[in-house]
Amino acid sequence: xSDAAPPLRLEAVERRYRTEAGELPVLTGADLVLQAGxxxxxxxxxxxxxxxxxxxxxxxxxxxxxEVFVEGQAAGRLPDDARTAIRRSTIGFVYQFHHxxxxxxxxxxVVLPQLAAGASRAxxxxxxxxxxxxxxxxxxxxxxxxxxxxGEQQRVAIARALANAPRVLLADEPTGNLDVATSxxxxxxxxxxxxxxxxxxxxxxxxxxxxxxxDRIVTLREGRVVPx
Length: 228
Description:
GO terms for molecular function: ATP binding; ATP hydrolysis activity; transmembrane transporter activity. This is Lipoprotein-releasing system ATP-binding protein LolD 1. The protein is α/β, with parallel strands linked by helices. It has one domain (about 10-220): P-loop containing nucleotide triphosphate hydrolases (Rossmann fold, 3-Layer(aba) Sandwich), CATH 3.40.50. The chain contains seven helices and ten strands. The protein has a six-stranded mixed β-sheet. A four-stranded antiparallel β-sheet has the order 2-1-4-5, with helices on one face. A hairpin with a 2-residue loop joins strand 4 and strand 5. The protein starts with 7 loop residues before the first strand and ends with a strand.
């Protein structure tokens, strides 16, 4: 594995789903490279494979063809436990719906993935507090998700995604569930945090204004990644 390898590279990735009508090809040879510090917008109509691409990039699914390289390592076809280990140490996820654990506080939601990755509780708590403060959540650390606004909940979700200092951040409509003003503010914080951490990010969005604030825009056409 080379130090110069990009954080994420998809090479001729294919994905097919079996349906009652037969096989449905979704990705038919998708290529994509994310460089360190680069934020790429993925803008494509619903049903074209955006979520599938993100799931493959995040090692949540195995490709039917091609390969997913994470920091130069062929990772797409590794056993489940090996892919899980890479996800924990290298990849962060942000979804449209925050998926916070409702029975835990904001701080605990950010601490838990760090404990799963082997951090000490003291170090995990210190990093969680620093991240939450950076997202303007000082004083809200001990509130459970039900006591936070939608924008605050998504800030916690972003902090959680960054908790293990991932080299790759994948986001699927991360502000799609927020009003326009809150979406703009949270997205600005997301971009700033990704740039400060030097991560490579792939962000799926339907919002062209948000897409234009990223480094480049790609789309999906006939199962392949092409410039938008």
